[in-house]
Design goal:
Elements (H helix, E strand, L loop, with lengths): L1 E6 L6 H10 L4 H8 L7 E10 L2 E10 L1 H6 L3 E2 H9 L5 H22 L7 E2 L5 H16 L4 E4 L2 E5 L1 E4 L2 E4 L3 H6 L5 E7 L5 H10 L2 E2 L6 E9 L10 E8 L12 E13 L7 H10 L4 E8 L5 E9 L4 H11 L6 E19 L2 E10 L2 E7 L1 H11 L3 H12 L2 H4 L8
Parallel strand pairs: 1-6, 6-11, 7-10
Antiparallel strand pairs: 1-13, 2-3, 4-5, 8-9, 12-13, 14-16, 14-17, 15-16, 17-18, 18-19
Helix pairs in contact: 1-6, 2-6, 4-5, 5-6, 5-8, 11-12
Length: 411
């Protein structure tokens, strides 16, 4: 799986995103060609290499022909949304672009206290906002990116002049967009995160947080317009593969990902309620959950509840534990896990075709495991012990231990 990481150490805007994508390898000519699927004309997207704080970066610029710039001083959100909906772009691009645009419009509507449909985009009549958003979505597709991650976003200070007058930094619309997003302070006087940049980061990213484990393929730098003393105003974009995910190099033997372990000690919860809590945690997306008998202070018997989850789901699982257990707090530990490369094949047995999970280290098969539910159904259907079905499926899959899973072993 190909992934991207937005490294926002100073700031992010729509043109910085486009610049970073082009710098990382997205072909600017293909980008322009696909953007021509939008029902707008007389615009131009250019890209040039410049230096920002000693770092070579790509500056992407959206410009309009002079007569168009003066004919449409601003456009409403509904007009821009209709342009995307009626475009000749792929369905996935349309849906993602509309989601980002809607996020910006809702933030602006909240700040100004007006309905979303009345929101206007002022920059270049809203066309540069449209090109930045749609172009970014297309750019990630051109790079073949499946999943996007983002670093916490920086909070600078100062003031910025807008169509609504002088506003504090971050502008109110940005503060709306940053609700629920991890942030950090940066000592920069001026706007570093724009509404479009914040919306792209928050809407397109699966998770905002630490750098994900990856094998890096390329790095792109997108240049911002402003210069900040002692700070390179660039957005860094990392492109790579998840370690062990379909790569052919000998080093890539496992799937590596980030996980969070959430734990709570409980000495006063009714044991009858505990299994239901574990089931609820698993139903809400936890990777695993379990109970362990322990002994707490003063010799009191207790249980330790633990849940393993992906980082982006940690808050959900934490809230479930705090709401539905008797614990007053939980412990969160971040870490990595390494998993076997896995696939599911179908084997033929006397009890029908049964799915079997196959685990590998690199290309070597190290374990096979029949699927429980399918084996249980077969046991009921043929009225034989479950262990007989397990043995039959395991025996049919035993050829994998010798020669690997070839086409002949799959149905």
């Amino acid at each position: 799986m190909k992934i991207a990481y937005l490294d926002v150490f100073i700031g992010i805007s729509g043109d910085m995103m486009l610049g970073a994508l082009i710098d990382a390898g997205a072909d600017v000519y293909q980008l322009r060609e696909q953007l021509e699927g939008l029902p707008i004309s007389n615009w131009q997207l250019s890209a040039e290499k410049i230096s920002k704080g000693g770092i070579q970066a790509t500056k992407a610029t959206v410009s309009l022909h002079e007569h168009q710039e003066h004919s449409h001083p601003h456009r409403r959100y509904v007009e821009l949304a209709e342009m995307i909906q009626t475009s000749e772009l792929p369905t996935e691009v349309i849906e993602q672009s509309l989601a980002v645009l809607r996020t910006v419009a809702e933030a602006e509507a909240t700040v100004h206290g007006v309905p979303v449909d009345e929101i206007h985009f002022h920059e270049l009549g809203g066309v540069d906002t449209l090109i930045d958003i749609v172009g970014s979505v297309i750019g990630f597709r051109l790079l073949g990116v499946d999943t996007i991650y983002c670093s916490p976003l920086p909070i600078s200070h100062g003031y910025v002049d807008t169509a609504h007058g002088r506003l504090p930094v971050p502008p109110p619309a940005v503060t709306e967009l940053l609700k629920g997003v991890p942030t950090f302070p940066v000592d920069v006087d001026g706007e570093t995160v724009t509404p479009t940049g914040a919306a792209l980061a928050a809407s397109l990213s699966q998770r905002v947080g630490a750098f994900p484990p990856m094998v890096v393929e390329s790095i792109g730098y997108g240049a911002g317009t402003k210069d900040f003393p002692g700070r390179p105003n660039v957005l860094r974009l990392w492109i790579g593969h998840v370690a062990g995910d379909g790569l052919s190099t000998d080093e890539e033997q496992f799937v590596v990902d980030e996980v969070v372990t959430i734990e709570a000690n409980m000495d006063d919860m009714n044991p009858e309620l505990q299994p239901a809590l574990v089931e609820k945690i698993l139903s809400e997306g936890a990777l695993d959950a379990w109970l362990t008998p322990i002994q707490m202070k003063k010799g009191r018997p207790a249980v330790k509840l633990a849940a393993l989850t992906a980082p982006e789901n940690a808050e959900v699982i934490t809230e479930i534990i705090l709401r539905e257990s008797t614990s007053f707090g939980v412990r969160l530990t971040s870490g990595q896990r390494r998993c076997l490369l896995r696939e599911t094949i179908t084997v033929a047995t006397a009890y029908g075709d049964l799915p079997v999970k196959v685990g590998r280290i690199g290309s070597e098969v190290v374990t096979v495991a029949p699927e429980y539910e399918d084996c249980r159904r077969a046991a009921q259907e043929y009225n034989v012990p479950l262990k007989v079905i397990y043995a039959a499926a395991s025996a049919a899959a035993s050829v994998l231990w010798v020669g690997g899973a070839g086409e002949d072993s799959q149905e």
